[in-house]
Amino acid sequence: MSRFKRGGKSVDSRAGFKSDKEESPVPYGLLKTARKSGQLNLSGRGLTEVPQSVWRLNLDTPEEAQQNLSFGGADRWWEQTDLTKLLLSSNKLQVLSEDIRLLPALIFLDVHDNQFTSLPSSIGELENLQKLNLSHNKLKELPEELWNLKNLRSLHLQQNELEQIPEGVGRLSNLDDLDLSNNQLTTIPESLGNLRSLIKLNLSYNKLKCIPPGIHSMTSLKLLDCTHNQLESVPSSLAQMASLEQLYLRHNKLRYLPDFPSCKLLKELHVGYNQIEVLGPEHLKHLNSISVLELRDNKLKALPDEIALLEGLERLELSNNDISSLPYALGNLPKLKILALEGNPLRTLRRDLLTKGTQELLKYLRSRVQEPDGQCGERHETALTLPSEAKINVHAIKTLKTLDYSEKQEASIPDELFDTAVGDPVISVNFSKNQLAAVPARCSAFVSKCNTVYSVAS
After folding, report:
1. For the segment 370-381, what is each residue's pLDDT rounded down to a tens digit?
2. Which residues contact 57 (CB under 8 A, 6 or more apart)?
C-alpha cells in the first residue's frame, strides 16, 4: 500500500476516493424499485438487521428528489406506491424492529427462516396484513397484539418452539389457513373453534394428547392434519364436520375410530401407524366420497364386507396389520387402483397373486365372488377365505340380499347359512342344482319375504 507522510502523519493514498457513507447492505436501486412496485424482496442476503431505510421507505424523501431536478416521467418519486409486500426470509435476523409499524400498508410479510425468539408488539398495528409467515424461527411466545390483525387470512407458525397458543387466536375471524406444526404444543385453546372461516389447520408434529370438542364449530374446515402427536382418541364432535375433505391422524395412539355420520365430503382418511384393532361397518357406511383410505401399521384383523360399498375408493393401504382374509367383494370396487397388503399374515395366499399387483389380485377376488365354490375344481383354502365364509357367499347376503347356496350338489343346507342371514333383509333365495330331498325347515322364515325363489330341488 502506497503511503506518504504529511506533517509527520501517515496518510492513506486512497483517502480522496473514499465515500463519506458506508455502503448499505440493501442496494439503493432495490429501494427505488420498491417505491414504484410496492414490493421489496430482501431474502437470502445474510442480513443481521434491517436497515432503517427499509422501515422509512415511504416516509423519507428519496435521494433522487434532491439530485434530479428534471422530474422526468420515470423519476416521479412523489408518485411512489406504499409497500404492500416485504420478504425478509432466510437471513440472520434476531430482532424484528418496532419500526415495522412504519409500513402500515403491508399485506404480505414473510420473515421465515431467521432467528427470531420474539416479535414486537407493534406488529399488531399492521391492520391491512393478510399473510404472515413466521415459520422456521425460534419463537417461544407470541405477543397479545398479534390477535388484533382482523384481516389476517394466512398465519404460518410451523417449526418454532411454541409450547402454547393463547386464547386470543380465536379473534382472527378471517383466518383460512393456520399452520402450527412442528412446535412443542401440548394443548390447543378451545377458542380455536371460533375460526369459522378456517379451511386448513395443520397441528402435526406436536405433543397433543387431545383435541378440544369445540373444533366441530369450524364449519368451513376442509383439511385437518394431526399427524405425529400423542392422541389416544378424537372427540366424537369431529364427526359433525360436514365440510371436512382430508383428515390425517397418522402416528398417534388411537385404538378406535369415531363414526363419521356428517362427513359426507370426506375424500381422504389417513389413520396409519396407530393401534386400531377394529374397522366396523359403522365406520364406513357414511363415507360416500372416500377415495383414499390409509390404515397401514395398525392391528386390524379383518375388513367388513361393507368395504365394497365404497365405490369411489382408489387407494386402500392395509400394510402391516393382522389381516388374514379379505372380502371377495373387494374385487368389485370399480376405481380401486392401489391395494397395499404387504406385512399381513396371508398365510396360504398364492404368492404369485401378490407379486402380480393390484389388478390381478382384484381379478382373482372378483372370480371368487362370481364362481360357485362347487365349480372351482380342487378347493384351495387360502388366507383370503374366512372359515365361516368357506361355502357361504356373505357378499350376496349383505349386499345383494340374496340367500345363495346354489350349484353345491349338497344333500342339505348348513345352518350356518341361515345364521349368517339372520337380521338381514333377504329378497331372493337360490338353492338350485343341489341334491335336496325337501325344502329345509328354516327356509320358510325367508321364503315368505322373498320376491324370487329358485328351485330347491336338483
Report:
1. 554 433 333 333
2. 31, 34, 35, 40, 83, 103
